[in-house]
Amino acid sequence: MRRATKLSLSAVAVVAVATGITVASVTKVDKHDKQPASAAAADPIAPLNKLSAKLTALPDVTPRGDQYLYMQMHTPGTEQLSQFWLSIDGAHDGLMIRPDVAAQTNTSPNIPMPGCVAGKRAVIRGDKKLAMTEPCAPTVAFTPSLPTGEAAMTSLLESMGDGGSATKPDAQDKANAQGAYILGTLEFTYLSRGQRIALVNAAKHLPGLILKTDATDGAGRPGLGISWAPPGNVGTPTTIVLDPGTGQYMGTQGGDSVVDVKIVNSVGATQ
């Protein structure tokens, strides 16, 4: 069954607070003070098992549909941070602030993200919301129906890249599809504790994914990596970087890095 459209970044190690949910802290990015990568461990599966055990002990909180996933991200080569307020249920208006895009296009950094209600959302032109609507599907920041069991999550990921064809897919194409799905599920989506544990455990069963203990994100921070080669080995492998202590998505190797993540009550709120 096709799920509602989603953007995707997970929140783990959450603690309930009066204003919402605070996500496990992400090491602040200082692009002028990069940390050295840790030495690679002999068995990359062991850190995933250890991480799964740590996640089991963390509290689990379900965000309300009217809340927002707030995040800050740093893009290599830029000075200012991008900010996102992503609607948990996709029905409420969100906002992106993208100084990097504004600098390239000479436009406003503020990009409205209209909510989708009853299959319709406001039409956006630049940074303006027009008095007209267009068909839509909700862009959600939390999908409660995502599997929380290891077997179900593994089955879901193993189906990636099949395309409904009776022909066995190319192994690299399949790994690329699986990796892209995991990245999309981590990058801008809140995951419950059970969903995150299932995803971590399922990654161990996918032969096309390479587990790395010496990965670094775009800010040079060391972490636990999940990597895969591009189809035909053309191009650079993609490596997702996770915090080995909390499982928090930190970014990708050589790409954007996550600076802060929270669940907040309104657009503009950062606490």
Protein model, in words:
The protein is α+β, with helices and mostly antiparallel strands. It has one domain (15-163, 171-264). The protein has 5 helices and 13 strands. It has helices at 45-56, 99-105, 150-158, 171-187, 193-203; strands at residues 15-17, 20-22, 68-74, 82-87, 94-97, 110-113, 120-125, 128-135, 210-216, 222-228, 238-242, 249-252, 257-264. A 7-stranded antiparallel sheet has the order 1-2-13-3-4-5-6. A 4-stranded antiparallel sheet has the order 9-10-11-12. Strand 3 (68-74) and strand 4 (82-87) form a beta hairpin. The longest helix is centred in the middle third of the chain and has 17 residues, at 171-187. The radius of gyration is 19 Å and the shape is globular.
With helices defined by DSSP (H or I, 4 residues minimum), what is the helix count?
A: 5
Distance between the termini: 35 Å
Structural class: alpha+beta
Helix-strand pattern, N to C? EEHEEEHEEEHHHEEEEE
- Gyration radius (Cα, Å) is 19 Å
- Taken together, the total number of domains comes to 1
Sheet with the most strands, sense and barrel status:
7 strands, antiparallel
Uncertain stretches of 5 or more adjacent residues: 1-22, 24-41
Q: How many β strands by DSSP?
A: 13
Look at the structure and give the mean pLDDT. Answer: 82
- C-alpha geometry: globular
Helix content: 10-25%
- Arrangement of strands in the largest sheet: 1-2-13-3-4-5-6
Q: Strand portion, in percent?
A: 25-35%
